[in-house]
Amino acid sequence: MGSTTKMHSDVDSLKICILGAGMGGLACALGLARAGFKDITVYELASNLGFVGAGIQMAPNMARILDRFGVWDAIFQEAVVLNETEVRQGATDEQMAHIDLKYIKETYGYPHTVGHRATLAGELYEGCKRESKNVKFTFATTCEDVKFGSKPSFTAVPRNGEPYEVQCDILLGADGVKSNTRVAMLRELNVEAEVKDTAQAAYRIMLTREQLSNDPELLALLDADKVIRWIGERRHIIAYPVSRKQIYNISTTQPDVNFAAAPSATYTTKGSKKAMLEVYGDYCPMIHRMLDLVPEGEVCEWKLRVHAPLPTWVHGSVGLVGDACHPTLPHMAQGAAQAIEDAGVLSVVLAHLPSGATPQDINKALKIYEEVRKERAEALVELAAQSGRNMHLGEGEAKKERDRQFAALKAGGGKGPVPDKWADADVQKMVYGVDCMKIAEELATKELNGH
């Protein structure tokens, strides 16, 4: 699907700059190039596309867009299809809920898969390289001093070189949770949006088949087609196989105690293995054996950060994308998917610009992007926070009620409301069953006349 009508010949030459080559920036570049835009430049602070080794869940709402962007087949080859999910008690390993995920492919056209972040980013980048006459990359460059005139501009500061001014027709800030573009936009609008400390941190761990080879119980986890969450008070672990089941990906969430002294500019730090084992000290022996396999010195801990919902994502011809406008806790596994939905919608609405598009037309198109995406993305951010709260309950009435819900779910064969929102069928329908690009196509056709 993409736009049903051909783009106007003077629209495809609009100069588009994208700040940031994360999932959102790469997907925007690829989607816009495939929509027919010919002058796209991506600016990235890092000197290359070094993506952190970690697993990523790839839900149908994301796969659908990646398929339209021509990169899903290559990503899917490396992926692991998840057929089931379980919630277990961290302390006892007792199963609290089991949900069959096989229905997802029948219902939404794509299975629920998991993969490696580096594969996803790498294939998006390869897709951009296939569009290399339309997409250019400028690495090792910081972008500062964003200005919002009739044509947006910013100062590009190369790591080894003189700063220079860049002016463009459309500027997309895909520059992450610490976005300079967002800061500049809010300053221009005289609005505050605090980065909120969630007081949560995450360990991200990848164990190879070789590391697990002497432990039959752990090997069985790697060989299963399932994602498991082990939950406990104020913390949980989620794990699943990736990279054709050669790697077991483990991600945790726990109270952020080690960052208290760290400057807020960093959001990752080398963690202590001893501290990690203590945090999950009351979990079952199998989890201890699993965490104990992490080599000393390879424990990475991340600070989980979000910010209050923004009053707007758009100002003039500038739009925010992904974590720059809707960073989320990982408990719905929708962070990258929501950035990719942003890219899908932008590729549709901007392709509908009328001939001789003015800054007003561009702003109108960006406002349609915001209309299609903002409420949905913010609802998912809130759901992720709620799901995290549900999983981290300590002793008390709320935990009893949650565990009753899990028990009812188990008795009902996996049907009914799920306290872990990610696995709830009604929530899945809202997340996976919505085709943002299709909605954008209808709105843009109606509101951006000229077609």
Brief overview:
It comes from Exophiala sideris. With 451 residues, the protein is of the alpha+beta class.
The total count of helices amounts to: 15
Strand order of the largest sheet: 6-5-14-15-16-13-18-17
Low-pLDDT runs: none
Shape: globular
Helix percent reads 25-40%
Query: What oligomeric state do the depicted chains represent?
Result: single chain
The percentage of residues in β strands lies in 25-35%
What value does the Rg take, in angstroms? 22 Å
Structural commentary:
It contains 15 helices and 20 strands. With 451 residues, the chain is of the alpha+beta class. It folds into two domains: 15-79 and 113-195 and 307-392 and 424-447, 3-Layer(bba) Sandwich (FAD/NAD(P)-binding domain), CATH 3.50.50; 198-305, D-Amino Acid Oxidase, Chain A, domain 2. Strands 6-5-14-15-16-13-18-17 form an eight-stranded mixed β-sheet. The protein has a six-stranded mixed β-sheet with strand order 8-2-1-12-20-19, sandwiched between helices. A three-stranded antiparallel β-sheet has the order 3-7-4. Strand 10 (152-158) and strand 11 (164-167) form a beta hairpin. The mean pLDDT is 90.
What attributes does this structure have?
single chain; 451 residues; alpha+beta; FAD/NAD(P)-binding domain; D-Amino Acid Oxidase, Chain A, domain 2; 2 domains; eight-stranded mixed β-sheet; globular
